[in-house]
């Protein structure tokens, strides 16, 4: 809608009730999109959690389950730490997923969950660096894999939250752009 020269009303003004309805529709669409993408992110995180819990369990049964067979050459401490690395990675992913589930009213809990997830991710990364450094040839693909698995959910969640907050701000700004108009 373009405004006429010298006036604040657009060429074809919308009734105030219609303006409110449009803003409510934007809010509804935003909430639906947030719910969809948070559910999608939670599903991905649950799959990653199951993957690492399964490998932590398999590591108890056998030192190097597939796909980590390339790490068989690690020293004894590295082999023992690998199970802990799997477990801490799973814990980090789990707390990240739970922080997404928590609603906006539980901001302090969300922040605490993210802090725990970040601490577990850092510890897991340190453990995996130790495991990988004990190999005769340092395996960069494995380091990249674990770094991306640990940092990826945090980056995705940060981008997701930023986009959601910015969109909410833009929708709330629409109230300031409303104009008085009553169609008879």
UniProtKB/TrEMBL annotation:
Please tell me whether the keyword Transmembrane is annotated for this protein: yes
Q: Where are the transmembrane segments?
A: 36-61, 81-101, 113-131, 143-165
Keywords noted in UniProt: Membrane, Transmembrane, Transmembrane helix
Q: Which domain of life is it from?
A: Eukaryota
List the protein's name.
Answer: Uncharacterized protein
